[in-house]
Design goal:
Elements lengths: L4 H12 L4 H14 L4 H8 L3 H14 L17 H13 L5 H12 L6 H10 L16 H9 L1
Helix pairs in contact: 1-2, 2-3, 2-4
Length: 152
């Protein structure tokens, strides 16, 4: 493969910039290929497949270093790690908890409202409690029916 020196220099600068591990693996695979290494050698060295090498080399040839970058870096959590730990500690101190109460607490303390209830359920789980059992008794239970069944 023939490449000009500036492309290889851009690739080296990108690798030296300490990118995300996934980006780094892409860049190193492309760099090794451009330096004349065989797919087998590259695969054994950095643990990638021949298809991976071909894919990222082709993308690099079309788009340059920008093509090796992650398209979506992921989302940032709404609560900082220390805030999350404070919420979990608060949950652990309570004898009784309710989803609505957790939502209100987080909004009042940190001005955060999660878009999904799953985020609240995850906090319950991290605090070692089941969000499914947050009420003292089954709200659908009919005390008269329960008495009939247990009284006989």
């Amino acid at each position: 493969m023939v490449t000009d020196g500036s492309m290889l220099e851009d690739l080296t600068d990108f690798i030296d910039s300490n990118p995300d591990a996934r980006e780094l693996k892409r860049a190193v695979a492309v760099q090794m290929f451009l330096k004349g290494y065989q797919h087998r050698e590259i695969g054994e060295s950095i643990g990638v497949s021949s298809g991976f090498i071909s894919k990222w080399t082709g993308i690099y040839e079309r788009l340059g270093v920008l093509g090796l970058k992650l398209g979506y870096p992921g989302s940032v959590g709404y609560l900082e790690p220390e805030q999350r730990q404070a919420v979990i500690a608060w949950l652990k101190r309570k004898n009784y908890w309710h989803l609505g109460e957790l939502q209100a607490y987080i909004e009042a303390e940190y001005e955060v409202v999660f878009g999904s209830k799953q985020s609240y359920y995850t906090l319950f789980k991290q605090a070692g409690m089941s969000w499914k059992k947050t009420q003292p008794r089954n709200p659908k239970a009919d005390p008269e029916l329960v008495e009939k069944k247990t009284g006989d």
